[in-house]
Amino acid sequence: MVGWFAFPWFVKALESDPELTRELFGDTFHWGLTTSAFQSEGAWNIDGKGESIWDRFSHNPSKIKDHSNADVACDFYHLYNQDLSLVQALNFKDFRFSIAWSRVVPGGIGTVNQKGIDFYNKVIDTCLSLGIKPWATLYHWDLPQALEDKGGWTNRDILSWFAEYTDLCTRKFGDRVNDWIVINEPAAVTMLGHLTGLHAPGHRGINKFMASVHHTTLCQGVGGRIIRSNIPQAHIGTALSCSYVEPYKKKPSHEKAAKRIDVLLNRLFIEPVLGMGYPVNDLPFLRKLEKFYQPGDEDKLKFDFDFIGLQNYFRVVGRPGIIPFIWASQKKPDKKTAELTELGWEVWPQGIYKSIMQFSKYPIKEIIITENGAAYPDELTADTVHDAKRVAYFKEYLKYVLQAKKEGANVTGYFAWTLVDNFEWSFGYGPRFGIVYNDFNTQRRIVKDSGLWFKEFLK
Ligand code: FCB
Fold it and tell me: What is the pLDDT of residue 9?
């Protein structure tokens, strides 16, 4: 058998690098893997699960690049035991998963599906029996279709729907789950789902976008308050995407354009939570949000999170442009000089450092990197996957996380995206982000070199 250890470059990768050891991050640092329900569970209509907006969206093949869907995905619904054993075998102590709202409450509100509750009980209990801490995300994009039919994120009633759902999850699982993430990337929910239509539910329009922005932001607070009241000692966060924005040229017009992009990508969902209101002065079209305001909303937007999850993949270079309202555009990375992942995302590890430092200027108690990772075209040969580029990606990004920590940023954890290759939203099964390879025909898992690298690093 040809083992990964037979490859000189990998032996080199395993040589300990004195600049990057687990010890340098401290004893209490959380090392985890992040997954999400829709991308990994499959079992889309099994045991009473209701339809979600992503089931509906992906059942229209024209919406997904490879015309696939996530009906089976990685079949985590049946294979959770084996996958959680892998988390343990790779020496991770923290596992972040999301609860599929439509699995526990098929219609979004009302009747509870006990089989759905049973499934998450099994996931949680298995984690605990393996010495892994379960971190639950309440909302990772898969709204019950029944609620979308009533307007979904554009209907203010979602505040009470989300409250009912959060109350249920915290009452059922709060005796064993202490770490909670309210919403995964409100920027993606709103911009991709309600403005560009690239994600479910596929809406395009400024009005729907504005309504969804205000309601997801309010729900961060709604969720946070319910978790706090049902589980007083809980460790509560929300997970925000961030991309460091740089002007293309050192010219005032470029700097102003970059600043407007920065508002949308990095400031929109954190500033209201901190009591600063929406950053309308730097992006005046956000005044359209006022239409959705009700008395008392300023206070409802605020919540004292224990941590903010940052999810970082790439930076953005901005310049003046014709995108309506922000009058800016993104300068695509130069293919000849930039290093790109399979999705064309630029590998720019200093970006994670810059984002952490940018968020550290806010009064945030703790920053946790709740997602970071890369898709590369992996090749399975003789039961090995030599994903040297992914190993290098993780090492470089981690070095910059460490630098931010050394410079005083209170970064307390790092979660890699992701455990097993899964369904990458509108791209389908093409881009592989796992540190474990999945053969989607057989559901066989093969640990990649990046998984082995983490195993060694975390031992
Ligand atoms: C993030 C999503 C996650 C995954 C990665 C690649 O924006 O939260 O589900 O798709 O990107």
Answer: 52
Q: Residue 85 — very low, low, confident or very high, per pLDDT cuts 50/70/90?
A: very high
For 240, the enclosing helix (H) or strand (E) is: strand 235-242
The span from the CA of 398 to the CA of 375, in Å, is 17
- For residue 36 and ligand 1, the question of a CB distance below 6 A is answered with yes
User: For residue 5, what pLDDT is reported?
Assistant: 46
Distance 166 CA to ligand 1 centre (A): 22
Q: Is the CB of 184 under 6 A from ligand 1?
A: yes
pLDDT recorded at residue 16: 72
Contacts of 424 (CB under 8 A, 6+ apart): 39, 375, 430, 431, 433
Q: Which atom of ligand 1 is nearest to the CA of 433?
A: 6
Cα-Cα end-to-end distance for the chain: 25
Distance CA 40, CA 92 (A): 19
Place of tokens 């592989």: 432
> Among all residues, which ones are annotated catalytic?
185, 371
Q: What is the DSSP letter of 247?
A: E
pLDDT of residue 7: 52
- The answer, yes or no, to whether the previous bond of 363 is cis (omega within 30 of 0) is no
Region 170-174: mean pLDDT is: 99
Decide: 55 and 46 in contact? Cβ < 8 Å.
Answer: no
Q: What kind and span of H or E run contains 136? A: strand 133-139
pLDDT in tens, 175-227: 999 999 999 999 999 999 999 999 999 999 999 999 999 999 999 999 999 99
Q: How big is the chain, counted in residues?
A: 459
349, burial (CB in 10 Å: exposed 0-12, middle 13-18, buried 19+): buried
288 pLDDT band, cuts 50/70/90, is very high
Q: Does ligand 1 have an atom closer than 6 angstroms to the CB of 185?
A: yes
- To the question of pTM greater than 0.85 for the whole model, the response is yes
Q: According to DSSP H, which parts of 90-233 are helical?
A: 101-104, 114-129, 145-148, 158-173, 186-187, 193-194, 206-230
Query: For the residues 354-360, what does the mean pLDDT come to?
Result: 98
